[in-house]
Structure formats: structure tokens, C-alpha cells
Design a protein that fits this description.
The complex is a heterodimer of chains A (104) and B (193). Chain A is an alpha+beta fold and 104 residues long. Chain A has four helices and three strands, in the order H-E-H-H-E-E-H. In chain A, helix 1 packs across helix 4. Chain A is globular and about 55 Å long.
Chain lengths: 104, 193
């Protein structure tokens, strides 16, 4: 997989996953790395940034297996921005596909 | 390297950040390693996947510098924070700013030049204006010549003030553009797989 494609989209994957349900860090890494090759250290800086930008709030919740986990929850602001970003992405991906599929 | 070594190293690298922020970061990394291990992964391999504590710390510091510059209300302090943010990104990824640095230094230098010139002009013209007003009564010659000198000097003072206001807003704009460019750049550095 060409890693050039990864740039910019990981943040969008994180936003999209958290907008569906509250997630903890490792869960996000697992879900994304099932499909996209990422180095695992990249997720936390992104989570920290998105939290600082007030897209996410965090809370601690006890887990069955041990110490509490930190969950990331989307704010109203985060939801708005995610909607915009996803709409732009869908249009872009669609346009690229149209161009690729013309090549016959 | 095991988990405790990694966290200890990370703490050392982060030591000039505020303590509660460091604790938060260590907590997050600790949670990550714990979760990965309870999912059945090797400690050694998990640590490796996180990359070096030094790079991690540089990344956090660059981000923090950008945030600080963003929230600085005073323009002069904001400018110095922005320069520090540029430095922090240079340390993190020296080649990332290669196309940015030339134009940035050029424009920043020019802006500085305009500041200096306008300030100097303002001071000089104000002094001349005051001197002229004080000596008006003692000058001989046509009153029209004096009036025109009076208004030229006044106009010069006003023009320098206008240029200063303009360059003030331009500097603000430049700082804002620089910060958004740096944020965008850091995003790419962070997502480098």
C-alpha cells in the first residue's frame, strides 16, 4: 500500500469512528489498522490535537479487565466539522473514481 | 526495551512540559501498551510500534508551541511563539519546511523592513512637525508657504501612521497564515505511516 495515500485520511477515520460511538485509544488503533497500515504511535498525537481543538471530550470509564480506559466522545463542534469533512471527502473520492473509470 | 523503560525515557524527553500534561501523556501511552498486551501482543513488539520516545516528544512539543502561539493575545509575543514553532518543526522534520523557509524569511524580512522604515519616518516627521509648529511665529516669508509646509508635515505623519496600521494587520495576517501552514505540516508529519 502506498503510504502517500494515508496522509490526511487517518484523522478523518478517527473522526468518523468516534462520531459513531465513544471509543478508547487502542480500540481506534485496532479498527483502523485492520484496513490501513499505520504506525501505532500516530494515533495519540491526533487524539490529543483533536481534543485540544475541542472536537473531542474525554472521560475515564472502568473496564472489566482492569484499570479505567480513557474514552473519546465527540462534541457538537466535532460533529459539525466531521460532517463537513466527510462531505468533502465523498465528493473528492467520487470525482477521482469518475476520472479513473473513464480510462477504458 | 520494556514498558517501564519506554515510559521512563518518554518522561525524561518531555520534562520541560507542564507536569499534568506529561502525566496525561504517560497515562495514555501506558494504557495503550497495557491494552495491546492484554490483546495478546508481545511487549517488545508493542513498544517498537510506538516509535522512539524522542520523536514522540518532539512531536508533542511542536504541537504545543503552535497551540501556544495561537492563543497568545499580544502580537509581539505571538510572533516570538510562532518563530519558536517554526524552530520546533525544523527540529522535528528538517526537510519538511524546505520550500517554506525561503519565502517565509523573505516576506518576514520585508515586513520587518517596512516596520522599521515606517517607525523611523513617523518619529522623524513628528519631530519636524513639532519643531515647525514651535518656530512658525519666528519664521518670515509668505504664510502660504508656511501653511503648505504645515500640511505636508501633518500629511507625512498621518501617512506613516496609516502604513504602520497596515503593516500591523499584515503582520497579524502573516502570523496566522504561518500558524495554519505549520499545523497542516505537523498533521502530515503525524500521519506519516
Amino acid at each position: 500500500m502506498n503510504t502517500q495515500f494515508n496522509k490526511g485520511v487517518i484523522e478523518m477515520c478517527v473522526l468518523s469512528l468516534v462520531s459513531q460511538k465513544d471509543c478508547y485509544g487502542y480500540e481506534l488503533v485496532e479498527k483502523i489498522s485492520q484496513r490501513i497500515e499505520i504506525s501505532e504511535g500516530t494515533i495519540y498525537p491526533i487524539l490529543r490535537r483533536l481534543t485540544q481543538e475541542k472536537y473531542f471530550e474525554t472521560y475515564l470509564q472502568e473496564s472489566a479487565e482492569g484499570p479505567p480506559r480513557k474514552y473519546y466522545k465527540m462534541t457538537q463542534l466535532g460533529r459539525q466539522e466531521t460532517e463537513k469533512l466527510l462531505a468533502a471527502w465523498r465528493k473528492f473520492a467520487n470525482d477521482v473514481n469518475m476520472i479513473i473509470d473513464q480510462r477504458k | 526495551m520494556n514498558k517501564n523503560d519506554f515510559l521512563k525515557l518518554l518522561r525524561t524527553e518531555l520534562q520541560d512540559l507542564p507536569a499534568d500534561e506529561v502525566n496525561e501523556i504517560i497515562r495514555d501511552q501506558e494504557e495503550f501498551i497495557r491494552e495491546a498486551m492484554s490483546a495478546g501482543r508481545e511487549e517488545e513488539q508493542v513498544i517498537q510500534s510506538l516509535g522512539s520516545p524522542r520523536d514522540f516528544a518532539k512531536n508533542v512539543k511542536a504541537q504545543q508551541q503552535i497551540d501556544r502561539a495561537h492563543s497568545e493575545p499580544q502580537l509581539t509575543k505571538q510572533m516570538s511563539s510562532t518563530l519558536k514553532a517554526v524552530m520546533a518543526i525544523l527540529v522535528l522534520a528538517p526537510f519538511n519546511l524546505i520550500f517554506f523557509l525561503g519565502p517565509f524569511l523573505g516576506i518576514a524580512g520585508m515586513t520587518f523592513g517596512v516596520w522599521a522604515t515606517a517607525l523611523a519616518a513617523l518619529m522623524l516627521l513628528t519631530l519636524l512637525f513639532i519643531a515647525f509648529c514651535l518656530s512658525w511665529l519666528f519664521l518670515s516669508g509668505s504664510v502660504w508657504v508656511h501653511l503648505s509646509t504645515f500640511f505636508s508635515l501633518l500629511g507625512g505623519v498621518a501617512l506613516s501612521v496609516l502604513i504602520l496600521i497596515g503593516v500591523y494587520y499584515f503582520t497579524k495576517f502573516l502570523v496566522r497564515m504561518t500558524l495554519s501552514y505549520l499545523s497542516w505540516n505537523l498533521k502530515f508529519i503525524q500521519e506519516k505511516a
